[in-house]
Amino acid sequence: MGCELGQEVGYSIRFDDVTSEKTKIKFATDGMLLREILVDPLLKRYSVIMVDEAHERSLSSDMLLGLLTKILKKRHDLRVVVSSATLDAERFLDFFTADVDEKTHGKKKEDYGYVVGIEGRMHHVDMHFLTEPTSDYLERAVETVLEIHTSQPEGDILVFLIGRDEIETAIDMIQDRVGDLDPASRNLQALPLYAGLPADQQMYVFEPAPENTRKVVISTNIAEASVTIDGIVYVVDSGYVKLRCYDPTTGIDRLAVVPISKASATQRSGRAGRTRPGKCYRLYTESTYSTLEATTPPEIQRSNLAPVFLQLFNLGITNIVRFPYLSNPPSSLASRALELLYALGALDSYARLSKPLGARMAELPLDPMLAKALLNAPTFHCLSEMLTLAAMMTLQGSAFVSFDPEKKLAERAKRAFAASEGDHLTLYNVYEAFIGPGRKDPKWCRANYLSFKALEKAVSVRRQLVRHLERLGIMESNVFSGEDVRRVGGMASVELQERLRRCLTTGFFAHAARMKEDGSFVMVDGKTVVWAHPSSLFFHRKADWVVYTEILESKDKIFIRDITSIELDWLTEYAPEYYRVKQK
């Protein structure tokens, strides 16, 4: 529209709002619109709401669609557009018109909504399948890339693999084999793309390749719909994706490698036809394609529902069983979410939102466990420090960066910030060092193998969390009873460290484990064995009891990350409803 960003056109994402009173068109995440419903239940600010990429069936978009069906009953002037390139349109229409009774209302479903098909500007894409299944799709993907490079006309290549390890292995394999080609065919530039890649490195994939050079982008499914890379003519599809599935019994997020759906296959092949006719090489047979599921299982059927349920309760929806879900969540996931919210004190014994704790937890844009710890911080006289920790824990990528040739130097730099009590206090030390005099600059970050952009983001997030707490009547204060000197050389003092560890336990008590002699941990069920993630300080250190932020299973091993040492007594002290000590 030729306007300045944030004026007539703006955007709103978590911890970043670039809009103004003049804004007429706003791009927002579905999660941000859910939070707006808290203060504007009928979304009266908007006349049209468009939910794009609805086929992805994220938790937030499913919740938003359910709430929009309720809002439409009150606001007949509101227009809702649900769009996607691979959408089961009739199903969505039926969902929105489920309550329409033609005899009662005297109107047909078509009077409330209809399906519109828009011919895209897609170019033709030739499909190529394997004639026989492959036993090693990674090897076959690399072979296919080199075949395209040596035999096909100009045009960049996009390869879909499942994760960082595979992507880095594939790039190494391509670089090794390009040297064996004739000199005229060695001009191949391989670039990675995955969510944990530092932002500046992600931007390389969008830049044109050097003259007379073909670019090959090796990506996770992030390139399926989230981003569009110009110049892609050839797509190589491995046929697999890594899906996160939550186990309600153990609380473990399992990263399972599964075949993609037909909808995902269509999205991937479409990347080849954006600018001109292209080709898609599917590393599976046509008969295998016919057996794929139509769509990927929605997140609501494989995720921790505690954050979602907390938001629904805060919106005044007390009967979550009767909420209009596009797909019903399994009862085991629902039960686990309610149990956790009750243990955190967010719900009372009647499964109603507790006041003020539950309502305050729901107001904060944080995971319920972290929200509980932050709200408890004034009790432990460590609100300022917990604000810093909460901001650092929201970073999607690590504050630390390292590259294979420099890993030892990066580890040495990390040890300079390390706290013996664990990863959370190490993150606190990093932040304190970053905001010190003369250090808040990219050069200092590079020298210490830290991400300048990530730490800048943490400073911004912390500032916004302060504002959120102020709206709840909680003020950040530097007054600390009983201790005049709070830090020693930028590090938290011993007494303050204990207060922080206790405070973290009040939120993350459900994530507790005990270290065994071999360096592994056993969860409180006494059965499940987990390991410290290689990025954790406890990968090489000893502890007794710990709490952790995240747990996930990958490569047949269960890892915990962001770990802090605690005392066993704290678990029963701060979560008596959750833990009871067995008498022998």
TrEMBL record:
Its EC number is 3.6.4.13. The keyword Nucleotide-binding applies. It comes from the Eukaryota. Gene3D superfamilies: 1.20.120.1080, P-loop containing nucleotide triphosphate hydrolases (3.40.50.300). InterPro entries: DEAD-box_helicase_OB_fold, DNA/RNA_helicase_DEAH_CS, HA2_WH, Helicase-assoc_dom, Helicase_ATP-bd, Helicase_C-like, P-loop_NTPase. Residues 137-316 form the Helicase C-terminal domain. SUPFAM superfamilies: P-loop containing nucleoside triphosphate hydrolases. One of its GO terms (cellular component) is catalytic step 2 spliceosome. Residues 1-105 form the Helicase ATP-binding domain. It holds the Pfam family WHD_HA2. GO terms for molecular function: ATP binding; hydrolase activity; RNA binding; RNA helicase activity. The keyword DNA damage does not apply. Keywords: ATP-binding, Helicase, Hydrolase, Nucleotide-binding. This is RNA helicase.
